[in-house]
């Protein structure tokens, strides 16, 4: 066993993802959920305080390498803004890293939320409509249906369904898969509901894997 394989085996052992227990694992990454995991963190993976101009973000290469440690297949679901060059550029990069067929995209929906004087808008971008009413744009792009359909279509090809998301909407899918003999791994950021927790054979907190999937970036001034 070379050094690289030894490191992978060590990580699997640390996370308690044994091949004997979980067999063939397919991972499904809800990127909108994953992308928020560390947005409020003020420490890196070594418990060192971040500088004022530093933030933790998901490192796509590290995310793929981490998932590959235990996953036979990884699919990433990402909401794209076709009118935004930065979003299109991100799609190009993530497809290059994970492989075009492993990335599932659809257009982000933009919902207008009209504001009142009591809302905290310090971190929001205000937009004014033709009637001089102020609103913010809420971007929404749920992939619950797509992930569920794909998981069921592939059900005969994996032993364990691994979901990178703490979304409670996956309770129904998880229970469906468990009734058909599948095991469930949940990789989650913050709080998850009791019902979702009960569907899992293994829960991995994102803070435990921060060093494997995150990087430090300078904030733009």
Structural account:
With 221 residues, this protein is α/β, with parallel strands linked by helices. The strands form three sheets. It has a six-stranded parallel sheet, with helices on both faces. Strands 5-7-6 form a three-stranded antiparallel sheet, with no helix packed on it. A two-stranded antiparallel sheet has the order 2-11. It has helices spanning 3-15, 19-22, 31-34, 60-70, 85-98, 144-153, 171-179, 194-198, 210-213, and strands at residues 25-30, 54-58, 73-80, 103-107, 109-114, 127-128, 134-140, 160-164, 183-188, 202-205, 214-218. It has nine helices and eleven strands. The radius of gyration is 19 Å and the shape is globular. It starts with a helix and ends with a strand. Helices cover 33% and strands 27% of the residues. It has a single domain, classed as 5'-nuclease (Rossmann fold). Strand 6 and strand 7 form a beta hairpin. The mean pLDDT is 90.
